[in-house]
Fold:
Amino acid sequence: MWVAIYFATAFGLGTLGYVAWAVHAVGRGAAWWPFVVGYPFAYLAVPLFFTTLWMYFGWRWRSARPPACELDFGGRVRMFAREFIAIAQAPKMIFYAILMRDPPAAPATLPILLLHGVGCNAAVWTTLRRHLEAEGLGPVYALSYGPPFAPIETFAPQVAAKIAAIERRTGATQVMVVAHSMGGLVARSYLRAYGPAHVRRVVSIGTPYEGSRHAWLMAGAPLAQMRPGSPYLRTLQSREAGEAAVPIVSIWSWHDSMVTPQVSSRWGDRDIALAGIAHNALLSDPRVLTLVADEVRRARATDDTAARGPAVAP
Structure:
């Protein structure tokens, strides 16, 4: 809700400002049609600015890459364009409650719970959910937690409540968690607070397990926690017993534009490194969609519940 209100307010105020400027200019004799034609370009200038800014620092603070991961000019252009398109779709988060409704209650063995990153909500998952459902891998649930700039630990009880609700709706005893960016840290905070019994597997996508220098460019409690060397991250340097009982798979990109250095995303039992994909575009990249679907199938074929410790009641 909080993120939707933020984007609706920003989008509405920006549009009103543009219209006021246009009315004033037309009233002084300017032609009206350039303002109509120019409105989409005025809007797209905002995601273009942020795409350029994040990717510049992503390059400046980059990890040393293997030679095989280097991109030619065409590869860089395609990567920039895909990231720009991903960021330009941010206004869809205004309509998250419509786009990401919970599926109907029905029996299921291993439901999937999606956890978003900082400054986002469940609407970022529309492409991945469509892909998983098309592969017959539902039901897929998503949680929009908040308030958006609260400490990361604040979201763990919300995850616990959502998992409990999913289990009531499906009759399942465990869920599969797929998390993007900060969502991976939210998942770890949940496991530390509530134990491993209700989570079969965690797949993270571009999560800054060791922090990101980009977090210094923004304000807010979760950003402070994601700065390299923060007290919060120091508490996560080793996996506690309960947390270690859940397999963690990390999918990340050598060209992540917001997790710097990119190798900060290495964590868990297995890491899968990709190339040529920036941070937000990870959520719609065909390679990532395929990898996540494969991990869901692998989790459904694995029953390691007996190895778990007891969960802490939500």
User: Anything to note?
Assistant: The chain has one domain: 1-308. Residues 80 and 113 are 29 Å apart (CA to CA).
